[in-house]
Amino acid sequence: MISKNLYFKLIKQDLQKRIWCPVLIFIGYFLLLEVRLLMMLDKIESNPYYAKLYSGIEGYVAKEFFGTNTAVYALTGCCAAFLCAMSGFSYLHSKTQLDAYHSLPVSRTQLFISKYVSGILCFIIPYALHTFASVGICAGKGILSAAAFGNAMDAVGVTLLVFLLSYAVFIMAVCLTGNMIISTLASAVLFCYSTIWACLMEALFVQFFETYPAIYDNNKSVYERFWAFSPCSMLIKLFTQHTAEAHADEWFRYNGGYLWVIAAAAVVCTGIAFVLYRLRASEAAGKAIAYHWAEPVIKTGLVIPAAFYTGVLFRDIVETDSRNVWYLFGVIFGYLIFALLLEAIFRLDIKSALHHKRQLAFNAACVALIFIVFRYDAFGFDTYVPESAELESCAVSIEGLMATAPAEIVDRGYYYSYYAGGDVDDYRMENVKLQGNGSVMELAVKAAAEWDRYLKTHNEEQAGDEDASYRSILFGYNLKNGKSVYRRYMIDITDAEMMELLAEVFNDSSYKTGTNVLLSEGVKKDYEKLYCMGRFKEQVMDMTPALQTKLLETYREEYMELDFFTVLEACPVGGISLMTREEYDYCEKDDYYFSRAKVSLIYPQFTKTIALLKENGFDIYETLSDEEINSVKVEYYAEREDEYGTYYDLVYEADIDDVLQRRQVLEAVLAANCAQQVTSYADLVDKDIQVYINDNSDSGGLYYYQFKKDMVPEFIDERGE
Fold it and tell me: What are phi and psi of 213, to 5 degrees?
């Protein structure tokens, strides 16, 4: 039985033997903590912009340095874990060192513990010293708050947990292999393996499944949909897959609730590393793989993703109709190269590339089976629609129709808007909860069946319906078992039955409240400004609580009566959006009203809303006087189609200088900001002609308009001829 003195002597000797490791970690954290802190404090003190950006020095220390930077400290801890594992356990690769250690009166268990503990000390002592030194610097400058100190202690705890998880995984890699090069490669694979598979599954879904909503995020990325069992995936979930509550503070640090998973994973991986260490044979030193049973598992686990990643590489390089052919070629080529290469590496002999023919055949069969399953949709992914009895609620997002969602200002003042692309879908998937509307599932079933039929005829190069016009629609099936399933279909809007079903969905009160920000139950009550956009003018007015309440009630009443087919026929006349003080200040700073892109539309039928706005000083119908117009320019575009898609080329442009002609233009145009929210479904404007009106305001506003359908003035309707 080993004595305590000898046990601590082993730890002391081990630390002395690899003193370069803690010294290197010490230098790294010195630069990352004290040096970086002093540099940033100097920058903030000397530059008012940074002082405002970080809400002062105290705000920077509490929220950024000991908050957001936790992710950087944790990532550095992963690098330190690799150094500690390799320096502490690399003796397993040397028969001479193994014989020396085994000659000591120390059991394998005690030897493992001493090495394991000394590795932790190599990391935690330098990191803790530098953290407390940074805290001392802040205290000396009088900028250390209770929140900053608490966050500093949290950062130490989080980084230590991440270190322990990574440390255990890297020790596993050393115990599984027999030389340093293979250990390094194994460390990278074990650290990132679940991330590799998650990204591969995402790539396969995008490649083969037409209904897979690749742009959809909503905090349910590939790392959420697939099991995260390696440190890289866990770190991504820890620092990015946060909840709305955690993100309420724009200086987001980490998802605290996930730390229990990190801690449990660290314990499990440490246990596995210990078992591998105990069972490892001394004869394994110098071999590529220490365990014979692990070799076929490792080869299969590496060859399959490598083959498909090679296919993705070839597919992305070739931008032609034969991309699928090159994808298949890449899969075959990648499999052969990596399978033979791994055989040669494990045998340490290039002549042994065909040593295990049965396993080569087995891995080839696995690759072929996965390819066939995805290529021919063996499990019916594209045609899946849940039964009504399985459904708790259903979210729907109709592409290009009232595509608005809240804007947010996050990340230290940087602007972020939900309006861009899939973020509108995110908002709708979270907020639309349709229940008891039979037309929803009828639409889903019809959309899935017709889209599948279209894909089959398209893939077989058969003639399709040339008059069809397809639009995207996203479904989020919230099942009673707690899972959510998402599918994106393409629907033909020339199909009358399809449009009737679409109307039933749009007219549903739950769809309207879930897609229009002003109708949502979660609309904030602290708006200070009201942005109004009319046919030609815009204005920001002060928002009082009384006006906000009255406006929301009036707008809700009229919007709930808005019919889908009215949207297809009537031109909106303007829009409104509520602005917080933060949003308004940001817009003032950048001289840009981003609300123009996300306004809730107002239609001519909204007479009460229009009257209420006029009462409070904004006339939505107010036009520009002759004196207010600086210039009017008309541009003609010709449609051109080629193998890559449809394009509009500028063929003619002209300035309209005549006053009467300008009046005709103003009477016939529709603001593009209004039109873009509905014209994907409604044929409201002439898309061949664009109108630019520059006014004489202080900002010199240049606004983009389009002529309403069939209202192009005769002196313009020549299409540039």
Answer: -80, 80
Global confidence as pTM: 0.77
Quick one: pLDDT at residue 244? 43
Q: CA-CA distances (angstroms) from residue 493 to 339, 459, 471? A: 49, 21, 7
What DSSP designation does 519 have?
Answer: G
The DSSP secondary structure of 338-397, one letter per residue, reads HHHHHHHHHHT-GGGTTS-HHHHHHHHHHHHHHHHHHHTTTT-TTT----GGGEEEEEEE
Q: Which two tokens stand for residue 653?
A: 């442009």
Contacts of 336 (CB under 8 A, 6+ apart): none
Q: Token pair for residue 344?
A: 């040669």
Task: Give bridge partners of residue 695 from the DSSP assignment.
Answer: 629
What end-to-end distance do the CA atoms of the chain give, in Å? Answer: 100
The pLDDT score that the predictor gives to residue 343 is 79
Q: Alpha-carbon distance 92 to 284, whole Å? A: 8
Taking Cα atoms as reference points, which of 533, 715, 574 lies closest to residue 634? 715
How many angstroms separate the CA atoms of 642 and 319, rounded?
Answer: 14
Helix (H, G, I), strand (E, B) or coil at 215: coil
Q: Within 10 A of 708 (CB to CB), how many other CB atoms are there? A: 16
Residue 61: CA atoms inside 13 Å, Cβ hemisphere, count? 27
Residue 555 CA to residue 601 CA, distance in Å, equals 10
pLDDT along the chain (721 residues), means of 10: 62 81 93 91 79 74 84 92 91 79 76 89 94 92 86 91 95 88 86 87 84 59 63 85 45 73 94 91 77 82 89 79 81 88 72 73 91 88 86 88 68 43 74 89 89 67 61 89 86 88 92 87 75 86 88 93 89 85 65 57 93 93 87 83 69 85 88 75 82 71 78 72 50
Cross-strand partners of 635: 653, 690
Could you tell me which of 449, 580, 456 has the C-alpha nearest to residue 526?
Answer: 580
Q: Cα(331)–Cα(342) distance, rounded to whole angstroms?
A: 16
Give the C-alpha separation, 450 to 318, whole Å.
30
C-alpha to C-alpha distances, 404 to 21, 72, 401, 414, 417, nearest whole angstrom: 54, 35, 9, 20, 10
**In 143-166, which positions are buried (b, 16+ CB within 10 angstroms) versus exposed (e)?**
bbeeebbebbebbbebbbbbbbbb
Q: Report the Cα 610 to chain-centroid distance in Å.
A: 38
Which runs of consecutive H residues, i.e. helices, occur in 177-293?
A: 180-208, 222-225, 231-239, 259-279
Distance in angstroms (rounded) separating the CA atoms of residues 288 and 295: 9
SS (H, E, C) 475-489: EEEEECCCCEEEEEE
Query: In angstroms, rounded to a whole number, what is the distance separating the alpha carbons of residues 535 and 36?
Result: 52
CB 719 within 8 A of CB 688: yes
Residues 122, 84: Cα–Cα separation, whole Å: 7
In which residue are the tokens 């027999």 written? 178
User: Which segments of 590-681 are extended strands (E)?
Assistant: 600-602, 629-642, 645-655, 669-671
Residue 545 CB coordination number (10 Å)? 10
Please tell me the distance from the alpha carbon of residue 502 to that of residue 443, in angstroms, as a whole number: 7
Q: What type of residue sits at position 258?
A: Y
Burial of 272 (0-12, 13-18, 19+ CB in 10 A): middle
Query: What angle, 0 to 180 degrees and rounded to 10, lies between the N-to-C axes of helices 294-317 and 357-375?
Result: 50
